[in-house]
Amino acid sequence: MNKHTGTACGDGLTERICGGEYFDPAATLGSGQMFRYRAKEGGFLVLSGSRACRVFCRGTNVLFRCREEDAEYFYKYFDLSRDYAPIVLRAATCGIPFVAEAAQAGRGIRILNQDPEETIFSFLLSQNNNIPRIRMLISRICGALGEECSFEGERYFAFPSARKLAERGEDFYASLGCGYRAKYIAGTARILAEDSAAGYAALSTEKLREKLLALPGVGPKVADCIALFAYHRAEAFPVDTWIERIYREELGGTLVGREKIAAYFAALFGDAGGYIQQYIFRYERERRSKWRE
Questions:
Q1: What is the pLDDT of residues 228-254, one digit of tens each?
Q2: What is the spatial distance between Cα 105 and Cα 101, in angstroms, rounded to a whole number?
């Protein structure tokens, strides 16, 4: 467990402090799990639904500041009750040098516990897209349909509920620049307005995946991302171009098809798979980026 203490800051705000060895805010937020954050005063402003917090480092500790009523939400959001040391150790001793290196380099990455609706719509927008554009589209949707809020003097817009999103049709989302994804946003909103995504948490991972795959525009990789980042199903192992490259170049894999590769990794790492996926995903991206410099 990541021990933490809380301190009242006045104006209805509280500040929580936790150890930083297994919590790197920049690595966690920049790992492709979520898209609603921005740099602020040496740290980051993190938005989730209508909630906001500021997370930053101080010495060897990490602090997050939020409204008092949101403190437990963000404690859970950052998965701070979980001890990540055994997870890193498992990756470091798996016998695969690349995975061991990635786990050591990325040991501060945590798997977030995000709002299911927001995660579903965010990853519908992520398909064949880059992170700056995903963030722009989410910002446009929030600005058009979300409630205006403020935190520490900074204005932002809440992520709209599925019911609110369902009030608009495909043409509206196309006008915001969503392209072919507009029909997926509109169609999924209509379904989730009646069938709560929060209720999916009670399903087995297999049934959860079936539910997600039945949503318009959700394929196997997006379903695995949602299962991992919204429902914390750590046995899920999303496979994209980066992971497929790692599989072939670092592990010498010969399987064809990303679903087969995902099943291979899931069998190899079991309930630690999602964590290890994040370690190797970020490690490969960082490494490739340095090579291009």
A1: 999 999 999 999 999 999 999 999 999
A2: 6
% of the chain surpassing 90 pLDDT = 87
pLDDT of residue 7: 60
Residue 172 CB contacts under 8 Å (≥ 6 apart), including other chains? 182, 186
Residues 224 and 191: beta-carbon distance below 8 Å: no
- The active-site residue, picked from 164, 183, 211, 221, is 221
Say if CB 20 and CB 38 are below 8 A apart. no
**Contact in structure between 195 and 202 (CB atoms under 8 Å):** no
Place of tokens 């209508």: 50
Average of per-residue pLDDT across 64-88: 95
State yes or no: is 221 an active-site residue: yes
- List phi, psi (to 5°) of 155: -85, 140
User: What is the pTM for the complete model shown?
Assistant: 0.92
Strand partners, 13: 10, 67
